[in-house]
């Protein structure tokens, strides 16, 4: 039996070594087995659409028109939102949008300013 761990992404047992990295032939995921403990601690990090790490109090800009559910209002591209709060859940940013009010946003639709 091999001592190579299963793929952390798809749990495939067919991972193999390629130099210093381990590679999964099923999903194509590559990882360094020595940095696995660091990857587990990075799971709670919230990043914007460009991969920048977000923190409480940051200012972000909306990158796409967002329809507000249950309303005819739209959050326009380029709207700046100041003083965000990061929360757990599907919508991981709580904020107040000027002209609209308090709402939750997904981090994939904002970029850090």
From TrEMBL:
Gene3D superfamilies: 2.20.25.10, SH3 Domains. SUPFAM superfamilies: Prokaryotic SH3-related domain (SSF82057), Zinc beta-ribbon (SSF57783). Residues 4-32 form the Protein YjdM N-terminal domain. InterPro entries: YjdM, YjdM_C, YjdM_N. Residues 46-113 form the Protein YjdM C-terminal domain. NCBIfam families: phnA. Belongs to the YjdM family. This is Alkylphosphonate utilization protein. It comes from Tichowtungia aerotolerans. The lineage of its organism: Bacteria, Pseudomonadati, Kiritimatiellota, Tichowtungiia, Tichowtungiales.
């Amino acid at each position: 039996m091999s001592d190579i761990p299963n793929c952390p992404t798809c749990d495939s047992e067919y991972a193999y070594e390629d130099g210093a990295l381990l590679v999964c032939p099923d999903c194509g995921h590559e990882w360094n087995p020595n940095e696995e403990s660091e990857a587990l601690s990075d799971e709670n990090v919230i990043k914007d659409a460009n991969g920048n790490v977000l923190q409480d109090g940051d200012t972000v800009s909306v990158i796409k028109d967002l329809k507000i559910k249950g309303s005819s209002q739209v959050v326009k591209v380029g709207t700046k939102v100041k003083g965000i709060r990061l929360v757990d859940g599907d919508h991981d940013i709580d904020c107040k949008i000027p002209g609209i009010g308090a709402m939750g946003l997904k981090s994939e639709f904002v970029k850090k300013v």
